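Handout, tutorial session.
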Amino acid sequence: MNRTARRIVLAAIGAIALAAVLFAVWSEDRPTATFTSLGGERTELSQLRGHPVVVTFWASDCRTCLLEIPGFNRLSEDYRAHDVRVIAVAMGYDVPSRVLSLVRETGLEYTVALDLDGRLAAAFGGVEWVPRTFVIDSHGLIRHKITGAVDFGRVRQEIETLLRES
């Protein structure tokens, strides 16, 4: 193989490697997920494109998570007219009957999904700790990640920015 052919082959290999890396990053920042609400309604994250989405992972034994419920209720209510969706995902180790009981007791006003098999946590990069919250833009790209207590002022700023962009 002559020098020119070798350079072309090496350039092609480099381009393929770069494409693989970019695809991996793109896929991680654009999760593919199907949420099944406590009521049995299935929603593909891709169906929500066109509007911002807030996804928060929580557990019934997480005090911080429970304290955030009123904030997520307000967020959901305040942005409902803009079709911003809030989805809470109960971790796979959580007992479904406990989750359902808490939803009834606390008056959650947004979608709650169970992650019984861990697929949702995996789709969002392997969520292991709660609370863990993601703000997703209208194209399905994760724009903001929060581990720990949510700063609702910051989340509202993110949503306002996303609404102006769309």
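The second record follows below. Compare its token runs with those of the first.
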Amino acid sequence: MIQRIQTLYLFIVIILQSVLLSTGIAKYTDPVSNELMYKTIKTIKTMDLPLIAALTSFTALIPAISMFLYKKRILQMRFNIFNSILLVALQGFIVYYIVQSKGLIFTVQSIFPVISLILSILAIRNIIKDELLIKSLHRLR
């Protein structure tokens, strides 16, 4: 299981989505100034937005389940395709929320779904390669 590269891809997706769940997706400056006239920077956490938090949780849970389905490659591939669709939806909701709320600034963590999507697609490609290799070995017998 660990020897296959797609397992590492899925593990990195789990880590990225877990980090996204525990950190913020956007920052804004607080308009209320203190006596020294310094503006404070506040962070909008993922857990403050229920829809984005739920999608982030699912996109971290699905690769964790999929990682242990290494003997059922077709099912593993379907899980990853579903996770890719959820990652696109998650990134769309993040961009929509930040664009609609004026004064918000993107953080580095807000592009984690894009990186996770790329890694998920790479995992799907390697799962397909494994499946084709297994089918070709069965033909030779």
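Points raised in discussion: The longest helix spans residues 112-140.
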